[in-house]
Amino acid sequence: MEQKNLVIQYDEYLDNGELSKEDSLLLERAVEAAESAYAPYSNFKVGAALLLSNGEVIAASNQENAAYPSGLCAERVAIFYAHAKYPNESILSIAVTAVVNGVQCETPTYPCGACRQVMAESQQRGGHPFRIIIGGSRVTQVVKSADSLLPLVFNNLPK
């Protein structure tokens, strides 16, 4: 037996003013997207904004449904729309944030497991990793790849 370790590296910003202009704008788009969320059951509004290789920015929000779990997370709404509309473009980065009672959460709201798997497969599809900006009004974290969020990804299906 050989023991292995996983190490997850990320950048943490305690002042969002330290973010690059591109990351800051993407996070702002995610906040705006959260405002359009349909979240009458949880009142937890999530927004995602992603930057594609063609320069397009796709923003989306979570969409709940009374027939839980028929709703969909903001991250998957954005990624699936991007792949449907621009099937030959890859994702360069995605920003995710949450808003409760009209106020952005102070700390990061991490993507669920299903969204992490979709991100991992989107990276494979695009042929390269993409950055994930997980934003709060007080703390924002940036990982360089979905592998950091889902290190033991399900990816051994035949192609």
Task: Note the topology.
Layout: E1 11-13, H1 21-34, E2 44-52, E3 57-61, H2 74-85, E4 91-100, E5 103-104, H3 113-126, E6 131-135, E7 140-143, H4 146-149
Just give the CATH class: Alpha Beta
Number of helices in the DSSP assignment: 4
Stated plainly, the CATH topology is called Cytidine Deaminase, domain 2
Tell me what the CATH architecture is. Answer: 3-Layer(aba) Sandwich
Query: What shape does the CA trace take?
Result: globular
Show unreliable segments: none
Describe the main β-sheet briefly. Answer: 7 strands, mixed
Helix percentage range: 25-40%
**Strand count:** 7
Can you say what the CATH homologous superfamily is? Cytidine Deaminase, domain 2
- Count of domains: 1
Overall residue-averaged pLDDT value: 95
* Cα end-to-end separation: 31 Å
Order of helices and strands, N to C?
A: EHEEHEEHEEH
Question: Explain this structure to me?
Answer:
The chain has helices at 21-34, 74-85, 113-126, 146-149, and strands spanning 11-13, 44-52, 57-61, 91-100, 103-104, 131-135, 140-143. With 159 residues, it is of the alpha+beta class. The chain has a single domain (11-140), classed as Cytidine Deaminase, domain 2 (3-Layer(aba) Sandwich). The two termini are 31 Å apart. Strands 1, 2, 3, 4, 5, 6 and 7 form a seven-stranded mixed beta sheet that branches. A hairpin with a 2-residue loop joins strand 4 (91-100) and strand 5. It is 28% helix and 24% strand. The mean pLDDT is 95. It is built from four helices and seven strands; from the N terminus they run βαββαββαββα.
Give a short summary of the structure.
By secondary structure, this protein is of the alpha+beta class. The chain contains four helices and seven strands, in the order E-H-E-E-H-E-E-H-E-E-H.
